[in-house]
Structures are given as C-alpha cells and as structure tokens.
Design brief:
Strand order of the largest sheet: 8-6-2-1-11-10-9
Shape: globular
Radius of gyration: 21 Å
Length: 385
C-alpha cells in the first residue's frame, strides 16, 4: 500500500451521471481478504477462497487500493456476525469491518462507497439479516431495502441517500429486504463460469490418456472422481470436506513416484508468460465486450445495476491445475496482470458502457484501474454537454 500512487478525490462533476452508467471498482468477496493463508492445514482451501489481500487486515486497505463498491456476504453463526465465502467462515466481526469502512469514508468525505450486502447465512442461533440490519442501523446508515429505489437515479442521488447525520462520509449499504430484490443485492452479476485461468481437457471418467499414467499412478482427476466429486463442477459450490478432499488428491498426485505428465492435464494458462495465454485472455475479452455492449439496459427493477466480472472464475478442474502450479486466485490475477489489462482496455476506449468492474486482488493495479475509470467518467460527463 505504501507504494501505491495517490488516488485523486472524487469530483462532484460526476454527480449527474446515471448510477448505472458510472464506472466503479467492485471488490469480489471483499471480506475474504481477512483470511490467513499461512495456516498449513487450511492454506490450499483458502488459496481458492481468498480473492483479496489486506496488508493491514482492514477493509480500508481495499478502499485505499481503489475499491468503491463491496461484494459483502455476512454470516451469523454461534451468535457471531462475521462473513463467509461459500461455507468458509471468515472470522472477522462485521461491526469491525463497518468501522474500518466508515473510518476511511470519514477521511474521504467526497467519495461514494457502496456496500452490496447479500447472501446472508445463519445457523439456529439467530437471523443473519436481522443482525446485519441492526449493525447498519446502529451507525445511522440509510439502508436501501428495495431495488426499485435505485431505478433511474444519478450519482448525486446516491450520495444524497448515503449522507449520514451521525458520521461523515458517504457509505450506502444496499440490502434488499422488501419489494424488489435480485442478483447480488440489486446488481446483475453477469457470471460466466467458463472463463477460467486454467483450461482443461474433457474429464470423462477413466477415458483420459496420459503418457506416463499407469495402474499404480492414476491421474489426480481419477482420485477426485473416486471422491464422488465432478471435476467440472464450480469449485465454489463444493463443501469444505469436498475441498479438503480435492487438496488431498492434489497432494497425493504430487507425491506419486510416477505421476502423469502435467502437460496432459491442461491446455492453457492465463499467466502472462504462458505461450497459451491468448486462449483465456481472448475468452475474457470477448465476455467483457459482450457485457459492455449490452450496457445498463440489461438491468431490470430487480437488478438496476450491473457488473463486468473482470476476474478468473474457477471450476474444480481449473483449481486442481492451479494447485499443481502452486497458484491461487490472488496469484492468478497477479501473474496474468488482468487488472492492468482491464485498465488498458478502459484507457483505450474499448468499452462503450461500464458500471461495476468487479475484480480480484484490487491491491494489484487498483489505483491505475481507478484512474482509468475516473477518465471514463469524465468522458461521460463531456459527452452529455
């Protein structure tokens, strides 16, 4: 964070821009940045759960790196309101996260910060939605509880909603509990599970050919299938025991005396130094072009805002290949330079429409991406004159 370039303050000249046409950085699974991947037992699961880094273990780190919108997923278990990614609990109190965000906002009173609070899960100890609303209301925040309230509003309108009489700053939580709700708390996610960093061959059971595979050295994917896990399943849908089983198969494969040739298990990589990077990069670029061309009209009263997910998705198979390369979600972004590529596309005027640009690892290239979006928003203002 210390080496990050300075971030220009938001300008009121953007206030007339429709909110669904205002370019902002959204951080994917923001609270996962609190996870500690140094734990030997859980590091492999966390490597494919943690999407952000927080050098100071504070949500303010993400804002300093350029984030202006949060994908936030609370969890209420054993009377503790914390966060989660899938079934992985993130042990950091929601109240502390709010204080971190509000503290940053108080120091940057012109910056609009939007929290999309959704996927609130509970055990029998209480109701997650009720407890999250208590925390938000206790700080005087004006919670948007109906997506209809976001229809056809401007940036200035959103700032007016975010004004808090009890504390400075502009923090707007969106947590639909009445009326219309949809997507990720009123935002169309435009999720495409097929766009992964690592591309794999077909995983038809027992039909793969690997040059050095033998009866005593079955492939890692046979091991996974023997655990009743589909290698093509989205990794985020697996339970914690299933994720642990996947990691165990990878470790078994790595320790095998005569493992199959790794090249037989993958066809491409997104890493910038890979000779095959054009395949996933072209897929990502085509996806971003498609969403941008569709623009804000794709929204509805349920999802008046929308995202371009400028991040690598993960299937179970792609996670396996990534683990074999000692990678992670954060590492895949860094080694592919995806955030920098996205900023270069914006600077080149590639995208006619933008709203949320959702990223992993915002502290890698986030300030440059924020600057590119600020220029994009400036051009939008000039085009309306």
């Amino acid at each position: 964070l210390a080496s990050a370039p300075p971030i220009a303050a938001a300008s009121s000249k953007h206030d007339a821009i429709p909110l669904d046409q205002y370019g902002m950085i959204m951080v994917h699974d923001a609270a996962s940045g609190y996870l500690d991947t140094s734990n030997i037992i859980t590091n492999e699961v966390y490597d494919w759960t943690r999407t952000q880094t927080m050098p100071n273990k504070s949500a303010a780190d993400l804002l300093t790196c350029g984030a202006r919108s949060f994908d936030w997923r609370p969890s209420y278990k054993e009377t503790k309101l914390q966060a989660h990614h899938g079934d992985v609990t993130i042990e950091h109190d929601f109240s502390d996260s709010l204080d971190e965000i509000l503290g940053w906002a108080a120091s940057h009173p012109e910056e609009l910060v939007i929290m999309h609070v959704w996927d609130c899960i509970s055990d029998d100890s209480g109701d997650c939605t009720t407890e999250a609303l208590k925390q938000l209301n206790s700080r005087g925040l004006n919670v948007v509880d109906d997506c209809n309230k976001l229809m056809n509003i401007t940036v200035g309108d959103a700032k007016a909603l975010a004004k808090n009489p009890t504390s400075p700053g502009l923090v707007l939580p969106i947590m639909p509990t009445t009326g219309n709700s949809g997507g990720q708390a009123c935002s169309a996610e435009n999720y495409d599970a097929s766009i992964a960093c690592w591309g794999t061959k077909s995983f038809t059971s027992r039909t793969r050919s690997a040059p050095t595979a033998t009866a005593t050295a079955p492939t890692v994917f046979d091991c996974i299938e023997d655990s009743n896990i589909d290698p093509n399943a989205p990794y985020k849908t697996l339970s914690s025991p299933q994720k642990t089983a996947v990691s165990a198969c990878v470790e078994k494969y790595q320790d095998a005396p005569a493992p199959p040739n790794l090249q037989a298990l993958f066809t491409y990589s997104c890493w910038d130094d890979s000779s095959s990077k054009s395949t996933p990069v072209d897929q990502m670029t085509a996806y971003m072009d498609k969403v941008s061309q569709a623009g804000p009209d794709q929204g509805s009263s349920n999802t008046p805002l929308y995202q371009i997910q400028a991040l690598w998705e993960e299937s179970t198979a792609s996670v396996v290949i990534g683990e074999l390369h000692l990678s992670s979600l954060v590492e895949d972004e860094a080694k592919s330079k995806l955030n920098a590529l996205t900023a270069s596309y914006i600077n080149a005027d590639r995208f006619p429409n933008l709203n949320y640009v959702e990223v992993n690892n915002v502290c890698d290239g986030g300030p440059e991406l924020l600057a590119a979006l600020s220029t994009f928003n400036d051009k939008h203002v000039n085009a309306r004159k």
